[in-house]
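Work Package 4 report. The design task specified in the project plan requires that, given a folded chain encoded as structure tokens, an amino acid be chosen for each position. We show below one input record used in the internal validation round.
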């Protein structure tokens, strides 16, 4: 149908709807609700110019008409006038006072920002839309559009915010006395080196920039990250160690890296991942170390939900505060992941790793083996996502100043993670993590146990 004819049909239909029953000979007048419906039908049918004319009339009557401003933004976007579309959507948002109105304005703003090339801003507005979704269907639409925009956004940001009460914020010893090899006396372990209770506070952000794919199933990305971890000591810890300051345990890290992933073979069942990261740490306000990390992983699909991953990692840590404790580490690992439960959608993974660390320092040089089990429930239970992990590690230091014949640590770690998906704000949900760690060591200084609760946030889409 020609455009002019279609427009006349839309107008005629609107006039017919607006006309009183039995008043076919009378002149019909469109009221504001009918004009809004007509403007929406026009923009949906591809007649953006006609929609603009109708919204002009509506806004002449009421400059704060949220629906008219939202439709106007959609029409301007369709015409390629993205800056004007953003202005109209912003005005709609400023005047919206109900969830449906805010949802519509945020969706219009997201569409205009995305078309203008501002995809990160579009993601933020889609989170606003989801937060104001009037029903489940609208929420699903916002999530769907978010996934679409994110897949086309070269930038991705991940934020981490944690509050973690812990019985051992300084990773101190659970013992109070230490016996050195060959000496028949005990030494008191300084209070600052014993386990101190308190709260760990952490914040981190990672930015990833993905380059345009260089071929099918290939992706290269740059990463940038920073994190800060500080503590507050409990009154009991401050009384036990009056010379300890919270600032003494503050750790700051910055890093940058590159990642490359590509599928191998024609069937795409093998995925090779390569990575390299360089970073710097500060501890208690002083330079601590530089580090370089290299990694490679090969993941093989074995059919169904089963995968086998081989990993090789190496890193170099250059200690600035204590050069003798600089180290080189190499780790080999193998992980098997498979689906379990009804439908095989729950995920269970078993990971075995072997690590060797070389260093001039006998307290750093060691080798270790570790076994880790992790399980994740595919669907939330009563609105709660559930994941759990259990780890066992045996680490041997062939030489040690603190244990005759060398030091051996056996560490057991258990973790339960609960994500409260129904408590959702801007697409983020609270996460409660309970973790217990017991490190048994033949060196009293390194014998420790920790029970901690970690409160954080996680993106639900």
């Amino acid at each position: 149908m020609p455009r002019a004819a279609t427009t006349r049909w839309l107008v005629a239909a609107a006039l017919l709807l607006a006309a009183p029953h039995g008043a076919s000979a009378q002149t019909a007048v469109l009221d504001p609700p009918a004009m809004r419906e007509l403007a929406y039908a026009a923009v949906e049918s591809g007649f953006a110019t006609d929609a603009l004319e109708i919204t002009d009339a509506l806004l002449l009557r009421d400059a704060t008409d949220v629906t008219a401003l939202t439709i106007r933004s959609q029409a301007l976007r369709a015409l390629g006038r993205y800056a004007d579309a953003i202005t109209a959507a912003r005005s709609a948002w400023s005047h919206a006072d109900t969830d449906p109105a805010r949802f519509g304005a945020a969706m219009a703003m997201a569409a205009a920002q995305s078309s203008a090339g501002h995809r990160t801003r579009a993601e933020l507005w889609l989170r606003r839309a989801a937060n104001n979704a009037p029903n489940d269907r609208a929420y699903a639409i916002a999530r769907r559009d978010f996934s679409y925009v994110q897949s086309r956004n070269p930038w991705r940001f991940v934020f981490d915010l944690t509050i973690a009460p812990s019985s051992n914020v300084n990773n101190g010893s659970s013992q109070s006395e230490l016996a050195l090899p060959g000496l028949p006396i005990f030494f008191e372990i300084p209070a600052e080196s014993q386990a101190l209770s308190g709260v760990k506070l952490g914040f981190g952000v990672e930015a990833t920039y993905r380059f345009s794919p260089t071929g099918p199933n290939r992706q290269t990305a740059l990463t940038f990250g920073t994190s800060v971890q500080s503590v507050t000591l409990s009154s009991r810890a401050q009384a036990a160690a009056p010379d300890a300051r919270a600032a003494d345990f503050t750790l700051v890290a910055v890093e940058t890296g590159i990642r490359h992933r590509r599928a191998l073979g024609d069937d795409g069942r093998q995925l090779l991942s390569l990575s390299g990261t360089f970073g710097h740490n500060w501890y208690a306000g002083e330079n601590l170390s530089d580090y370089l990390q290299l990694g490679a992983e090969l993941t093989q699909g074995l059919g169904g939900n089963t995968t086998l991953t081989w990993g090789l990692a190496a890193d170099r840590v250059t200690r600035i505060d204590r050069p003798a404790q600089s180290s080189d580490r190499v780790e080999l690992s193998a992980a098997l992941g498979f689906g379990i439960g009804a439908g095989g959608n729950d995920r269970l993974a078993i990971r075995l790793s072997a690590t060797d660390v070389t260093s001039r320092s006998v307290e750093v040089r060691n080798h270790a083996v570790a076994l880790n089990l992790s399980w994740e429930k595919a669907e939330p239970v009563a609105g709660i996502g559930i994941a759990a992990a259990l780890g066992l590690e045996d680490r041997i230091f062939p030489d040690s100043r603190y244990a005759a014949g060398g030091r051996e640590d056996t560490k057991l770690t258990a973790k339960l993670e609960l994500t409260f998906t129904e408590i959702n704000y801007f697409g983020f949900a609270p996460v409660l993590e309970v973790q217990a760690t017991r490190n048994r060591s033949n060196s009293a200084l390194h014998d420790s146990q920790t029970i901690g609760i970690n409160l954080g946030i996680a993106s639900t889409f």
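The chain has two domains: 3-151, 155-459. Validation will be extended to a larger panel in the next phase.
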